[in-house]
Amino acid sequence: PRVFVPIAEDAAALLGVVVAFLGVFLSRALQMPVLDAASSIVIGLILASVALFLAYETRGLLVGETIDDILEAKVRRVCREDPAVQGLERLLGVHLGPDDILLTMDVRFRSGAGREPVSRVVDRIERRIRAEDPRVRRIFVEPEGSDG
User: Fold this and answer.
1) Phi/psi zone of residue 106: left (φ > 0), alpha (ψ -120 to 50 degrees), beta?
2) Distance (Å, rounded) from C-alpha 14 to C-alpha 3?
3) What is the CA radius of gyration of the chain?
4) What are the tens digits of pLDDT across the range 63-77?
């Protein structure tokens, strides 16, 4: 948004100036004041269309854009490959910013005597996920019931 919002606004402003100039020039040259009014309507349409475009492009930043399928597949693979994980019940991911992703996961862990603590498994999974995609800054893991 830091790049395309100013570009879109400036392009609309420049286009509006050109349309306004043409409207005033042609209305004087052709003695048709309606062209000046028409240029004002065209400028309004330009501004409205740029506003709609910017709203469409930035809505994900306002309400939270979900993670893409590639990252979701990587997270599922990391969980599936860990020997202490029985399954990934639920995965929700949202972009909080361009380089800031939040993940929440319901993970079902395997039970058994002599297994490592769940906290160590969670730390290992978090490290592996962040190695796959460093944009993942926050990970919340909710342990689910285990087999047993």
Assistant:
1) beta
2) 17
3) 27
4) 778 888 999 999 999
